[in-house]
Structure of ParA family protein:
Amino acid sequence: MNKETFVAFATQKGGVGKSTVTALVANYVHNVMGYNVAVIDCDEPQHSIAGLRDKETALIEQNDRMRAIACEHFRKSGRKAFPVIRSNAVQALDDAESLLAEGDYKPDIVFFDLPGTLKSDGVIKTLSQMDYIFTPISADRFVVESALQFVMMFNDNLVTTGIARTKAISLFWTKVDGRERTDLYDLYGKLFAENNFHVLGTKLPDSKRFRRDMSDDRKTVFRSTILPADNAMLRGSRIKELAEEICDVIKS
């Protein structure tokens, strides 16, 4: 990648795991695939990703075992933890430009975690400057309808008019329950195809592992902004496949 790429996981419906997926994909792309990344956490007031980084940093400072694990990871990988910038939708682009201007660290991909409503100040402006947007959806009629409205509005009002610099918007399934009817996904798939919406092939399962943060009483970690996800927990999570597919979209 010759120039930094701006990527957002965006939706106007909460509860589909947007922040969790942002953290997991950014972590995998940085620690496993070897790209330099940065995360701009604009989802105030909760700032879930920045809060996770604060929690992890404090734990590593206070816990000898976790500090040893982190030091060994940094030594072996030769990579530092990627920056997580606490921001908001209004200041996000300025904060990203400030990071890029510093010169000490050049991210290949800057991930933006935006509020779950387009009505928040600055969200539309920030989204218009994304190179790629990935929208998580679950097999719920309200979530799907909301996603359709979001993609159609953004494409019709911003992309086709040339206001947005966005090259592609892709939907992807998350919180997939293996017990759900496959014909439900087929039905939605036909709906997306009829509207020429691009849907990633990777589907993320509904799994408790997505909430497994670093802890002083756990030997393994999955959701992290510092340490790579445990290999055993990574298998079956589909995060590897999602991260690789997203990078393929960016490089294509």
User: Anything to note?
Assistant: The chain has one domain: 5-251.
